Amino acid sequence: MTIHSKFRVALISVLMLAACLSLPIQAQPLAKDPTRPADRQPKDHSEAAEGKIAASWVLQAVTYTRQHQSAIINGHHYRAGQWLNKQVKLHQVLPDSVILVVNDKKQTLTLRDIKIKTEVNGAFN
Question: What is the Cα–Cα distance from 16 to 18, expressed in whole angstroms?
């Protein structure tokens, strides 16, 4: 192989590399985690402010013991006093429901398919 042909091969390699690098790179979207709860965030937060809580917020679970009260709403974990968004605050967690405050008005969300386990002497029955 002559120097001229080696130069030609090197030039072609460099040009091919430059062409490949100039192509737009399209990242593949990450696969959705099948174990994660469905995202049910309200599309329009003004709906919640207008009192249409039932359509926007879904109470999925409640943990209620003497030491700990929390709720899972739309796949997110909250404790009393936390804000769900700029307009909605979790006011109180009860054994089968939660009370939200929306623009100084209280709204109640209740569990569907209620299964309440009560704590007796530190154990659930």
Answer: 5
For the chain, domains (ranges, CATH) are 45-115 (2.30.30.830)
Per-residue pLDDT of 14-69, as tens digits, reads 777 666 666 665 555 666 666 666 655 545 445 444 555 545 888 999 988 888 89
Percent of the chain with pLDDT over 90: 22
- What pLDDT was estimated at residue 48? 44
> Two tokens at 100?
């939200």
Contacts of 100 (CB under 8 A, 6+ apart): 53, 57, 84, 88, 89, 90, 91, 106, 107, 108, 109
Instruction: Give the DSSP letter string of 58-125.
Output: -EEEEEE-SS-EEEEETTEEEETT-BSSSSEEEEEE-SSEEEEEETTEEEEEE-SS-----EETTEE-
